[in-house]
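Researcher: I've been going back and forth with a colleague about how Transglycosylase SLT domain-containing protein might be arranged in three dimensions. Neither of us has a model we trust, so I'd like an independent prediction. The organism is Thiothrix winogradskyi, in case that matters for your notes. Sequence below.
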Amino acid sequence: MRKTIHRAVSVSLACAALILATATLNFAHAAGCQTLSSNNLQARASAYKPLIQNAAAQHGVSASLVKAVITVESCFRPKARGTLGEKGLMQLMPATARRFNIKNGYNAQQNIHGGTRYLGYLQQRYSGDLPRMVAAYNAGEGRIKPGGRIPNKAYVSKVMQAYSKFSGKSASLGADTKASPRAAVSVKQAALKTASTPAAAPVGKALPWADLHSGTYHVKTGDTVYEAMRQTGVPVKKLVRLNNLSAPYTIKAGQVLKLK
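Model: Here is an independent structure prediction for Transglycosylase SLT domain-containing protein. You can compare it with whatever you and your colleague have in mind.
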């Protein structure tokens, strides 16, 4: 009798633990991973600590920022997949993979390297202005002008919330948040290191994205020419020229764009 009761209690405790874990996971997805405690986030990031530190040092970006972006993009799920073709921890867009020659979006090392390299480029473009760097990472650099308005404030606020927890520093959307001088110097060095190679590597058959477009792109509902650029890696000016688009360069669902 006692064994039966003990077994029943053990099963109940195991079920309770499973329910609690599931509830925590559901909360992270519903409310946003950035709302989890600092200890919880640090624990999730620990599995990728060496990869993040190496990529951050190589590209002159704060490791806390890389972790914050991963928090909001995938909640540290290496197999995460977005509806627009984003993949992996940092949810790399197909065009970003093409731009930095990332062959496997689900490979943690490649994914973190590609996303951090892009953050390094954005850090240089926006002179270390964190809110606009983050905004451009999400919306595309074509939509975010240096010193201009930030249309995706909700996303930026989430990343800033996570960044504060990782860095221990207060960071908000309205603050004059700049990268440290040391980081800025590192970015210039990283830029010089990669200046001799093209920013956009040639598209090869080895790239695993089935949705990487070779010759044409079928416009989806809600697409803008900037979204087409993000999806294909083809610069806006080239898209405009190839498809004879007239200002304001409106494109419609179902339209087929030439890419080369």
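Researcher: What would you highlight for our discussion?
Model: I'd start with this: Confidence is low (pLDDT under 50) at residues 13-30, 180-208. After that, consider the following. The chain has eleven helices and two strands.
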